[in-house]
Protein 1
Amino acid sequence: MPRILITGSSGQIGTNLFHHLSNIGGYSVIGVDKRPNNWEADLETHLVDLTDAERSESFARQHLDDVDLVVHLAAYAKVFELVEHPERALENITMTFRALELCRARKIPIIFGSSREVYGDIERIITGESDADFVIAESPYSASKISGEALTDSYARCYGLHYLTFRFSNVYGRFDNDLERMTRVMPLFIDKISKGEEVTVFGKDKVLDFTYVDDCVSGIGLAIDSLLSSKVTNQTFNLARGEGSTLVELAEGIADELGKPLKMNTRPSRPGEVTHYIANIGKARSLLKYDPKVSLREGIRRTVAWWRESGLL
Ligand SMILES: NC(=O)c1ccc[n+]([C@@H]2O[C@H](COP(=O)([O-])OP(=O)(O)OC[C@H]3O[C@@H](n4cnc5c(N)ncnc54)[C@H](O)[C@@H]3O)[C@@H](O)[C@H]2O)c1
């Protein structure tokens, strides 16, 4: 049974990925994170700060010998937070370096969780993978993901490492309500609208590609199989829904689902934020057979249902 290590396993995508791999079966999974996992008690989670070289090495010596593949998700994942704390971008790069080193030493493949932020804020209706222009880094977060992608690719060239890189885009859904740690737009809007509070939309014309988390983790699952069987290696993919929606549409959909009136004000986009992105997901469709199923409206319905079931509303 292939053994998968998820870094950043207590986070939104990591927790959902564990959930997905457990549901489909056939894998054993361990996680590493600097925080405990609040949702999945069954996930074997090792508490290690991956910026700490000594602790990371000691963890790897004890637990990595039978690992077949690493899904590297650990990062500071919020764009505007890194505009305010740029030193955290450097930590992101260090974590990726550490994950790559663990893989290099053991000759195991890696899936790297990158971001659509590598494209910068270039107005395009459809963005294909080859449109990335690494001269443009819109924010320190974007720079940290560009560095991570470049490092990963360099390890393939210099050390024969096998990898797949995913550029995720606004992933939302269950296991994402921790507003004190990380204020992502979907949980923030659900929280505020449910309490009858006003929401602020930064960028009323902003168009983003929202990805329901089950689609995201099913894509990662397909990549795990492809990489373990060496069917697809050393490729970079957009992983998204492939459709654009405005933040106003998002807020309206949430208010509708909650059955609450929408109180909204709009302000200009903040520095470092992408204002227009719709992914071209043709490459993931054709090479990985990725097939996202959940529209934004249906995703909002499922997300609000999860908040209700979890007693958060
Ligand atoms: N969710 C999205 O919309 C989205 C979009 C684009 C890219 N991504 C990328 O996907 C990955 C996963 O995102 P997520 O949404 O699950 O984020 P998340 O913040 O929910 O999870 C990231 C996890 O990394 C952990 N982490 C941070 N620093 C660490 C360290 N020094 N050592 C060990 N663990 C550490 C955090 O504790 C957290 O649990 C991230 O790399 C993120 O940048 C996410």
Protein 2
Amino acid sequence: MVNLTIDNRKIEAEAGQFILDVARENGIVIPTLCSHESIEPTGSCRLCVVEARQGKKTRIVTSCLYPVAKGMIVDTRSERVMNVRRLVLQLLLARCPGSEQLKEMAAEMGVEAEPRFVPDTDNVKCILCRMCVRTCEKVVGVSAIGFSYRGPEKNVCTPFKEESETCIGCGACAYICPTGHIEMETTETGDTRTIWGRTFKMKICKVCGRYFAPEDQLVYISQKTGVPIEDLAVCISCR
Ligand code: SF4
């Protein structure tokens, strides 16, 4: 165990834990867009920066990737930290001026709603955090999406922007996306779901009669786990 200070609070943490995790465990809120407990941190969004002092050295570090250390003094809201966060947010807004999530964060941090940098486009909401790509690969185990193009054109999509044969329509990428960039639509009756340009037929629960999961997803789970497909015909609430 190591003892450190975060925002003037004496805190005990396990050696090797990241600052962000320790802060969260102790109820200290650090803003993030690309952090989720189901996937490894990568520090993509850079909003979680904090000031960390060790001995005479003070550095701005990415808290989701920076481990705590004995005697470390962390400030999560110093003027220097807030200035870096505001700059990061302005850059993100320049790429995605249409993102409501970014606008809300900007309002909370006192960043001008009007971007300081010239927007590339007004309809892109992807901040290139890779949350969707990593979730599809590491959590779902499918790898149906990735990045294409470079520079301002860089964007997440299916291979060659065509209908993906590997996508199972689970929607995990859309759920985890912090800016609502990935569109997923379900019909009013719930019988189909469309994502990444492909429409998936939904399975109806044989107990409650509600549509609950894409048939392709259930087939995938059955093949992966060896559970007979007939045993997957009931939704989670009715199991
Ligand atoms: S909906 Fe398709 S692309 Fe998105 S996580 Fe599921 S399998 Fe991957």
